[in-house]
Write a structure and sequence with these properties.
There is one protein chain. The chain is about 50% helix and about 10% strand. The protein is built from four helices and three strands, in the order βββαααα. The protein has a three-stranded antiparallel β-sheet. β1 and β2 form a beta hairpin. The chain starts with 17 loop residues before the first strand and ends in a 5-residue tail after the last helix.
């Protein structure tokens, strides 16, 4: 195997002389005044603080939004449980069982005629089927606030 010698390349970066003077900061040939130097240092500190605080603030915001979502789901489940308790109490009586059989299955007693009225609604209350449906956390969205659209996009929160 032949011996191949690679040429040596010297590469150095130019060094900027940074020094402080009584009137401010000198970088290379540029002289910064005292107020400019202080402004630059404050801005640098603020940028570093924002970068360091982003992840913890994102985690906190996500936790707050998830808690609000869980509270909304709890409210729905509490309403559902109250409707179920009321439904069970109604079905334990003879009259309640008869009413349910008439409503759900169209049963009538001998000598009675069944009539079904279509197209009438009873206001804005949810139907029994909607209330009795099982609710999961994915079915509920976190409540909207005045700041949530902006912060959701800043922190990448998915309100699914």
């Amino acid at each position: 195997m032949p011996n191949i010698k690679m040429p040596r390349v010297n590469f150095t970066l130019p060094k900027l002389p940074i020094s402080t003077t009584e009137t401010g900061l000198k970088v290379g040939s540029v002289q910064l005044g005292r107020t400019s130097t202080i402004s630059l240092m404050v801005c640098t500190c603020l940028v570093l603080a924002c970068l360091l605080m982003y992840a913890p603030v994102k985690d906190y915001y996500t936790a707050v939004r998830d808690q609000a979502k869980a509270e909304a789901a709890l409210e729905i489940v509490t309403t559902r449980n109250a409707a179920l308790i009321e439904d069970v109490a109604l079905l334990t009586s003879e009259a309640g069982m008869e009413d349910r059989a008439r409503e759900q299955y169209g049963w009538v007693r001998q000598g009675e005629n069944a009539v079904t009225v279509v197209g009438l609604s009873e206001g804005g209350e949810p139907s029994a089927a909607e209330i009795l449906r099982t609710v999961t956390l994915n079915d509920v969205k976190a409540p909207e606030t005045w700041y949530s659209p902006l912060l959701d996009s800043v922190f990448g929160y998915e309100n699914a």
